[in-house]
Design a protein that fits this description.
Blueprint (H helix, E strand, L loop, with lengths): L7 H4 L8 E5 L3 E7 L2 E6 L8 E6 L6 H15 L9 E5 L2 H5 L19 H6 L3 H20 L8 E9 L7 E5 L5 H13 L4 E4 L7 H8 L3 E9 L12 H12 L15 E10 L6 E2 L9 E3 L4 E5 L2 E4 L4 E4 L10 E9 L9
Parallel strand pairs: 4-5, 4-6, 6-9, 7-8, 8-10
Antiparallel strand pairs: 1-2, 2-3, 3-5, 7-9, 10-16, 11-13, 12-15, 13-14, 15-16
Keywords: Hydrolase, Metal-binding, Zinc
InterPro entries: AspA/AstE_fam, AstE_AspA_cat, Aste_AspA_hybrid_dom
Cofactor: Zn(2+)
Length: 348
């Protein structure tokens, strides 16, 4: 089978507002839906299998997932492996990717609220707002195509990111609060098998892309953090080989081996207990700028100051995503408590 050379980074320069067929063979067709958004549609769709969305680059400086998507797309086009599920690949923020920055005007991964307030509409204007609409339209088109025969077809969404800071668990996932218990266990199984080390269960609805697809399309969605963000060319993708192989296995097989029982001892599960919203410009933390995600904070410890007042924690906890530089009204920190999975539940 003849292959088709494809360079994701070069193709992101293409300004495209309509669907274009880039390549086809007897097994599947490869489309560009718009700039940075691609679909691979099997010639014969098995409506008993889930369709898959793989998104990356919503933050332009989180490079490892973007490089992984290039590897996966080229592997398909070279015929190295044969996808049997419909796939939507999304490179979220092309302008930010080329400017090597997190975003241009506004955090793209805060623009997926099901219903946005008037204040949010006023604040979030610019390139990312337009881009979020393009992404939503592409997802709607993809879901309409793949679910046209079987309305109960399950949608799976992996939104791939990197963390701003290093982590005690470098590879971890964040799950939307709307997922049911059985859905969470299904994701736990996949993540444990893919060498993901920890999971955070969110406590409320948030305007992220994975939460959006979980709510609107009942998708089995997860935000997956693949190490710390570094510049292009500095990623060691061998550290992501296990994760990459399990994704490929999922896309090319009707079944994948899933871990059960004591294998879950390797997966640390956390629940969000509190979040800190930035309400004043003077917010600052009482710990080093390079503190790692999942660092422990003892009960009564001074966390920082806001509005001239001290912030103390009421119980032993763990912190993730501390960022005092976010805009006022956005989340500046999450506090976590551990949850120890009931391994017997994995046998059901």
């Amino acid at each position: 089978m003849a292959s088709c050379h494809f360079n994701l980074f070069d193709d992101l320069l293409t300004q495209c507002s309509r669907e274009v067929l880039l390549y086809a063979n007897p097994h599947w067709q490869f489309f560009r839906l718009t700039t940075g958004i691609y679909s691979i549609i099997p010639t014969s769709i098995n409506y008993q299998l889930s369709a898959v969305i793989i998104s990356c680059g919503l933050h332009g400086n989180e490079t490892a997932p973007i490089e992984l998507n290039q590897v996966w797309l080229q592997g398909i086009l070279d015929g190295d492996w044969q996808p049997i599920r419909p796939i939507l690949f999304i490179a979220g923020n092309p302008k930010a990717i080329f400017h090597h920055t997190r975003f241009i005007d506004y955090n793209l991964n805060r623009l997926f609220a099901i219903k946005r307030s008037t204040q949010q509409e006023k604040e979030a204007q610019g390139y990312e707002t337009r881009r979020s609409q393009q992404i939503k339209q592409a997802v709607e088109h993809f879901v309409g195509l793949t679910h046209s025969v079987n309305k109960r077809l399950r949608l799976v969404h992996f939104d791939l990111h990197c963390s701003i800071r290093s982590s005690h668990y470098p590879f971890f996932a964040v799950l939307p609060v709307v997922l049911g218990e059985q859905s969470k266990w299904n994701i736990y199984r996949f993540l444990a098998n893919a060498s993901i080390q920890a999971v955070i269960n969110m406590h409320k609805v948030v305007p992220t892309f994975s939460c959006y697809t979980a709510i609107k399309y009942h998708a089995l969605s997860a935000t997956i953090e693949l190490g710390q963000a570094v510049p292009f060319g500095c990623n060691d993708l061998t550290k992501l080989e296990s994760f990459s192989q399990k994704v490929i296995q999922f896309l090319t097989s009707t079944k994948i081996p899933l871990k059960t029982g004591t294998d879950f001892n390797q997966l640390q599960v956390f629940n969000v207990s509190e979040q800190l919203i930035k309400t004043h410009a003077d917010l600052r933390f009482n710990f080093a700028n390079d503190v790692k995600n999942f660092s422990q904070i003892a009960k009564g410890q001074l966390l920082g100051w806001q509005n001239g007042k001290p912030i103390q924690v009421s119980k032993n906890t763990y912190l993730v995503f501390p960022n005092p530089k976010v805009k006022i009204g956005q989340r500046a920190l999450l506090l976590l408590e551990t949850e120890y999975p009931d391994v017997e539940a994995t046998k059901n």
